[in-house]
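Need the bound structure for 4AD, inputs here:
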Amino acid sequence: MERTFIADLRQHIGEEVKIQGWLQVLRDQKKMQFLVVRDTTSTVQVAFWKGNDAALAEQISTLTTESALTITGTVVDNPVVKLGGLELQLASLEVNNLAESPMPFEPYGDTLPQLDFRMDWRYLDLRRKENLLLFQVQTTAEFAMREFCQQNRFVEIHTPKIVGAPSESGAELFTIEYFDRKAYLAQSPQFYKQMAMAAGFERVFEIGPVFRADPSFTSRHMTEFTGVDMEISWTQSHEDVMAIQERWLNHIYQRVKDVHGEQIREVFNHEIVVPTLPFPRIPMAEVIQILKQRGYQLPADKKGDIDPGGEREIAAYVKEKYNHDFVFVTDWPITARPFYHMRHPNNPNLTMSYDLIANGLEITTGAQREHRPEILKKQALEKGLHLEPIQFYLDFFRFGCPPHGGFGLGLSRLLMVMLGLNNIRESVFLFRGPTRLIP
Ligand code: 4AD
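Answer from helper R.:
Posting the output first, comments after.
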């Protein structure tokens, strides 16, 4: 017999079916036994009349919650049953894996242990309905990203993660042994997505792993994360990049709301708000003035960057003034930006770049790139870079590389803000941090 997903049981009233899933609840009564069984689509009540088979009833009574089961039975319409108004009358039971009892914690129990403990037992934690929904949302979001890209003539690329030169700053770089020499784990696909511009691909995107040897213990940093990167040829400034990114995000939010909005409200008590276009844009210099006026003191050592508190404060301002959850902070000083960002033609101290802050959290860095080889070389030298290791990159710009711009977005940060979560450890399948390598 073929397996039926629980969500599809209503199409099989009166028929004998086979379901497979986990035992969530067992109620062993005098004459009847009720099992709540869960698969990734739904839950169902399974009923067994003890008088039918004493040996089977005995076996059912020894079942532990979270055991993996295969059950056959007849689907009956039963309006009094709260779970979907139907019931499966058990005919046979196969115990595929009896869960040890007690478990480190019960994913459907009354109390939820601390996050760190749950991370030790992540495969049990992932059984919670919040987590299943989160990864269903992630699937839809990635689908929508690709859908938009395909509709807008983007090509998907996968660039190497073992690299010979850092693509961002020399800090935050993992070094690995590569036969008899040193190599690095890619901090971003930056150089290679720009290579695709030199290759004439015009529009590319990548969804892939990114590594950062960042020793910080915050609720928003990981040492490995999934980066979503786009690069677009013939843009004239960061404005063209922002215009594409906001349409793209609007599309992703709309898809997620259409498919999961109701369930997100139920499970996370959170409303998906599809961001209206255009998103507000505020130049960095103005942001600093606004923060000052609101009495927010930026830390002195930030080189023109804003800190997380400042991001939240500017988000609060934008919410009050524009009733918007997103804001592009534009025109960053060169001190806070990498060498490959293009500078303003009329102010060489500013870059044509932006950060996107969503609900008070930075989720994106984007910019118009410098595509003129001589200027690019000069900017690299100004930042104190050695040219030799990045010569291959500088060469991309020698043979007709068009002007271009792009951005990078952290997938788990997007999920955090989409679902209103406070910690990035909750929005990634397995967190990687300075002291977390297992499981
Ligand atoms: O701001 P970042 O470092 O920018 C780049 O990598 C550029 N090459 C992008 C570009 O095309 N200009 O990283 C981009 C995004 C951040 O905005 C953030 O969402 C996420 O990646 N991110 C992290 N997410 C989790 N943990 C970390 N340690 C992250 N560092 C950056």
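Comments: The chain is about 30% helix and 25% strand. The first strand starts at residue 16 and ends at 28.
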